[in-house]
From TrEMBL:
NCBIfam families assigned to the protein according to its UniProt record, in alphabetical order: cobA_cysG_Cterm (TIGR01469), cysG_Nterm (TIGR01470), PRK06136.1 (NF004790)
Residue span(s) of domain Tetrapyrrole methylase: 173-376
Keyword Oxidoreductase part of the UniProt annotation: yes
Key words, A-Z: Cobalamin biosynthesis, Lyase, Methyltransferase, Multifunctional enzyme, NAD, Oxidoreductase, Porphyrin biosynthesis, S-adenosyl-L-methionine, Transferase
Pathway note: Porphyrin-containing compound metabolism; siroheme biosynthesis; sirohydrochlorin from precorrin-2: step 1/1
Catalytic activity: precorrin-2 + NAD(+) = sirohydrochlorin + NADH + 2 H(+)
The protein's name in its UniProt record: Uroporphyrinogen-III C-methyltransferase
Pfam families tied to this protein: NAD_binding_7, TP_methylase
Taxonomic source organism: Arthrobacter oryzae
Lineage: Bacteria, Bacillati, Actinomycetota, Actinomycetes, Micrococcales
Annotated catalytic residues: D203, K225
Gene Ontology molecular-function annotations: NAD binding; precorrin-2 dehydrogenase activity; sirohydrochlorin ferrochelatase activity; uroporphyrin-III C-methyltransferase activity
Length: 430
């Protein structure tokens, strides 16, 4: 049998009787697949392997512990042979053929009236691969396709609604953390949901490159904010999510960083639940940790810092420890940098405490500015530092490969620091 002789189709066996002849591991796998399809499975075999016995003991299938008889194929819709005995399998196949019943012959795929493909299920998509009778090749291809669907590299989005169409409450919302902006740093789950979306409600700091990969009919609603400028108020964003989901759409709220780290994701999720809209939260790589890492700065480091605090304004700095061994991370804090530095100095943090600013972390125009608590505000102003940026204050800045040599008063690292990810970086030092 050549691959050209195959007419691919799918059997709907829900509630229909099927026969498995054989009691070994192959028969158990085939029986399990038939059970998953909802078939009424009868196994005929003198002995059953443990996997089959467990299915029978659980009442999921009927096992008749005896040899095969030609009359066994008389009242079934589909037959699977897996005895390991070519003569018995051939007899079963011939009996099924005589009664025009589809039969898979595990002993001789060339003589088999039907082939069992390698199967995987992703969401509500079932992938079935035949590869010219080569099962290992089929499994490899199946796994590759399934992985591409899982990661969003292949489109998983629905184009036909089930039933009579969308109804109120039929859609869903996914709050997806997109990471610091690099399209490769979104989670696999987030990328997959983005590929399934009908509507994307997008922030300014999410992975923008991924929006260009969306299908032309996917609507993108821009709700991005900049410091002091919120063109779409949060209450309106909440209302958009619910309204789109109620139209039956799969909505992805694509956010920068993590939805639950200073991203107001909690408010959006709560509003969806209050309005009976199904909502899922997909964590992201928060910029508070990842962007310093892009400049080789760990937020904690043995011998330097055991904890860290993340704040968004200098008013909050009075609540954090003013010590160089406790890392302070300021998000979107460029506009208040001078006030923040003064607050920390007033609280007792030494003026010589290292400070690093990472602009546009992980993006091609990433830039790092390193100085001290006493000098960083002037340096940032002279360099034209602007948001989006993450400011790191504390001795951990000494570990950065961008730090000047005189910052490294000791070898704080257990290994040589990695080379910087980008060359488009300027380091300003006092």
């Amino acid at each position: 049998m050549a691959i050209q002789d195959i007419y691919p189709t799918a059997l709907r066996l829900l509630g229909r009787p099927v026969l498995v002849v054989g009691g070994g591991p192959v028969a158990a796998r085939r029986a399990k697949g038939l059970l998953d399809a909802g078939a009424l499975v009868t196994v005929v075999a003198p002995a059953a392997c443990p996997a089959l016995s467990r299915l029978a003991d659980a009442g999921l299938l009927a096992w008749e512990p005896r040899p095969y008889r030609p009359s066994d194929v008389g009242a079934v819709w589909f037959v699977q042979t897996a005895t390991g005995d070519a003569a018995v399998d051939a007899q079963v196949s011939a009996d099924a053929e005589a009664q025009r019943i589809w039969c898979v012959n595990a002993s001789d795929h060339e003589a088999s009236a039907a082939w069992t493909p390698a199967v995987a299920v992703v969401d509500d998509v079932k992938i079935a691969v035949n590869a010219g009778g080569d099962p290992r090749r089929a499994m490899a291809l199946r796994d590759a396709v399934a992985t591409a669907l899982e990661t969003g590299d292949l489109p998983l989005r629905r184009h036909r609604l089930s039933g009579t169409g969308a109804t109120t409450g039929a859609g869903s919302v996914a709050l997806v953390g997109g990471g610091p902006g690099d399209s490769g740093l979104i989670t696999v789950r987030g990328r997959r949901l983005l590929g399934q979306a009908d509507v994307v409600v997008a922030d300014r700091l999410g992975p923008r490159e991924l929006l260009a990969e969306l299908a032309p009919d996917v609507r993108v609603i821009e709700v991005g904010k900049t410091p002091g400028h919120h063109p779409v108020p949060q209450a309106e964003i909440n209302a958009i999510l619910v309204a789109e989901a109620r139209q039956g759409h799969r909505v992805v709220r694509l956010k920068g960083g993590d939805p639950y780290v200073l991203g107001r994701g909690g408010e959006e999720a709560e509003f969806c639940r209050q309005n009976d809209v199904d909502v899922e939260v997909v964590p992201g790589v928060t910029s508070a940790i990842s962007v310093p890492a892009a400049a080789g700065i760990p937020v904690t480091h043995r011998g330097l810092a055991k904890g860290f605090s993340v704040v968004t304004g200098h008013e909050e700095l009075s609540e954090v420890p003013a010590r160089a061994d406790h890392t302070v991370i300021l998000l979107m804090g460029v506009g208040q940098l001078r006030e923040s530095a003064a607050s920390l100095a007033h609280a007792g943090l030494p003026a010589g405490t290292p400070v690093g600013i990472v602009e546009n972390g992980y993006l091609p125009d990433q830039r790092v500015t390193i100085g001290t608590l006493g000098t960083i505000a002037d340096q940032a102003e002279a360099a034209g530092v602007a948001n989006p940026a993450v400011i790191v204050i504390g001795d951990v800045v000494r570990v950065s490969p961008f730090a000047p040599a005189h910052f490294k008063v000791a070898d704080y690292s257990t290994t040589t620091p990695n080379a910087p990810r980008t060359t488009k970086t300027r380091v300003l030092t006092p």
